[in-house]
Automatic annotation (TrEMBL):
This is Beta-lactamase family protein. It comes from the Bacteria. GO terms for molecular function: 3',5'-cyclic-AMP phosphodiesterase activity; 3',5'-cyclic-GMP phosphodiesterase activity. One of its GO terms (biological process) is cAMP catabolic process. InterPro entries: Metallo-B-lactamas (IPR001279), Pdiesterase2 (IPR000396), RibonucZ/Hydroxyglut_hydro (IPR036866). Residues 15-221 form the Metallo-beta-lactamase domain.
Amino acid sequence: MELQVLGCSGGVGDGLRTTTMKLGQEILIDAGTGVGDLTLEQMTDLRHIFLTHSHLDHIASIPLLVDSVFEHLHEPLTIHALDATLDALRTHIFNNVIWPDFAALPHPDRPVLRYQPMQPGESRQVGELQFEMVPVNHVVPGVGYIVRNTRRVFAFSGDTTTNDTFWARLNQLDRLDMLIVEAAFPDRDIDICRRAGHYCPSLLAEDLLKLRHRPEIYISHNKPGDEDEIYDECRRVITTHHLNRLSAGSRFTL
């Protein structure tokens, strides 16, 4: 199973895409602007989207994705997310004002979009992969995911700041091979991080001290223009773990 990073930036610009990760041919974790780099055939193959939260940079491509493959779908595209996240999609996006309600099209009995609520702590099996939803600390209800198969375990923090829930659950695992975690701002913006529910390097360093595992760590979700500053600060203050910079186009074998 291949994990392909289609987008991992905290914004857009030349070569920058927002959070989108593709697992195999059928699964996305979040659906930011990185979806737009897929071919029509690749988009048609998608069957599941696991969302971390409702912010635009993580859901932006869902309306256009569904519209682009509408005529080619023979079974619904399923969105797995918190009730609050699904309610936000229904109320603010697929409301027949911003975009058609594809959960009722072409017919309420045969929709091309299906909402599947998940609760923190719940696990869901898709093929050989198991997805476990873990609560995190963001300004809107948010989660991370632990993804397992018989060989590997990786975790994705989603958008979060200082918390205990994510790290406590990771410590309960027998193994953790890879962790993708956000660091949205440099330390000079620590007040913004606290208000906006994000990590900066010093806040992330404090929370990583809680982690008993030593996975490969990939830093994600940097604000455009601040990438080098954020990564350099992370390497300075995080000395207990091996750090890597995540980039769009990265591929990992699970």
